[in-house]
């Protein structure tokens, strides 16, 4: 046999083996399909039996819970009600829930703060940034009221609890649930949380406490704060939130990344050179001086809002949209980011400097510059006036008016043009001769 015939036989044998493997593969697929169908049928029968058995046991509990939720009274207490966060974010969000009937019918919204404020002033304060019909706004005002107190006094919290109990007993006979929203600076978190736990907890319903950012001033203070809160509350009672994640564009980032067939394949380091996140505000502190003296804009924005944005933009696709899975992917990204160095940062401040001496120097320099500019303008005006006077004097000396002067100038131009024309004719005639 030649080499070519042997090669042909080898190819034919390989083809037959491939055909056998394909047939076996199809048989295995058919067996797997049959097994899956059998398992699904048995599981559906068992689940239907278990459901029918559990329905009788759980229907009573579900009906009781549904009745309790409908008939229960909900109290939402906003600490730091006079602050910027509560007026711009918290109360408008509560109004939206209230106007869309997403809150229980038996509800009261309480604003707690240190500042002295009447009920009418409080209503105007919380409805500054609220948009809605006047009927909904008036109904929202009826449900909300103000309570003045300090964050480190247990007596104020106990009086607040008694006021809440009065309204709860008037409007409902079932369980009373309370949600405490801490829109206060972090140095007040621990004292407020302790007083809430000791003096304001409801005994007939659930209790939830919501803690806003920033969580401390640095890593040590954040760990201390978390340790204090963990000692007071269980994990199902405690909510640590960042209100910036509630924005519509931030919530759409994951959909834009992972559900968009145009962006998803190219959203990686091979196709994106750099990422620039810009945060702009067109207003100043607006009553937040005490807060910014202790924390500043970097701790207020960069370590929470912008870091969350960076994590959503740069993280890998999570296994699911569960909170734990998303958190693990964010943590992976933050571990992979190199720590910041002061050499790579540029920090600036717009406006006048803080020191008084520098302020005086800057004001003096600005006043001197303005005086110089004014003197230059005056000198230029004086020069123009002098030029006009000189022209008028010359015209008067000649005894000719402006109109005559212009006519004379036009006559001179015509005579000069005629002389040039005659000279050109003479030159041409001399050349011919």
Protein architecture, described:
- It is built from 14 helices and 6 strands.
- The chain has helices at residues 3-71, 84-99, 119-126, 134-143, 154-171, 189-200, 219-232, 248-251, 253-258, 289-294, 296-314, 323-336, 356-398, 402-432, and strands at residues 73-79, 107-113, 144-148, 176-182, 207-212, 238-241.
- A 6-stranded parallel β-sheet has the order 3-2-1-4-5-6.
- The protein starts with a helix and ends with a helix.
List the main descriptive attributes of the protein structure presented here.
433 residues, alpha/beta, six-stranded parallel beta sheet, 6 strands, 8% strand, flat
Radius of gyration: 41 Å
Q: How do the helices and strands follow one another from N- to C-terminus? A: HEHEHHEHEHEHEHHHHHHH
In round numbers, the mean pLDDT is 77
Question: What about the largest sheet?
Answer: 6 strands, parallel
User: What is the overall number of helices?
Assistant: 14
Structure class = alpha/beta
Q: Could you give the count of β-strands? A: 6
Task: Please mark out the parts with pLDDT under 50 across 5 or more consecutive residues, or reply none.
Answer: 46-52, 54-67, 400-407, 426-433
Give the termini separation. Answer: 117 Å
Oligomer: single chain
Strand order of the largest sheet: 3-2-1-4-5-6
- Approximately how much helix is present in the residues? 55-70%
**Bulk shape:** flat
Describe this structure in a few short sentences.
This protein has 433 residues and is α/β, with parallel strands linked by helices. Helix content is 62%, strand content 8%. The chain contains 14 helices and six strands.
